[in-house]
User: What shape does this take?
Amino acid sequence: MTPRRQRMLTVALVLVGVGLAVGLTLQAFQENLLYFYSPTQALAGEPPEGRKFRLGGLVEEGSMSRQPGELKVSFVVSDLEQSLPVTYEGVLPDLFREGQGVVAHGYMEPDGTFRAEEVLAKHDENYMAPEVAELLAEQGHPVKEQAAN
Assistant: This one.
């Protein structure tokens, strides 16, 4: 094999290796993305089947229920248009309350409920997740300017 052919083969192998590495990296990123959906979007079937996503909105007043002595809790998340029941097993954040904004990570179950694996609540009285603030502003819910920042 001539030196020119060896260089061309080396360049071709390097390009194939780089292409494979880029492809695997992009696939890993795609699998780990968590898209944000409102209850209306989730009920319309916008989230991909079997994939995790983030659900955000307000926890409806009077919707939280928990069995004494158990970590399993259920509540309803609303975007002021539609509501979606959520189940979660674990310790809720200290600032989790009814009537407050919440973002839950999880997936839709076949029965139409959202199974949360993680629940995030606001961290002070002025903060709301930007996605939730935008969603509520679109729905006509009064949102303080500070909440979106």
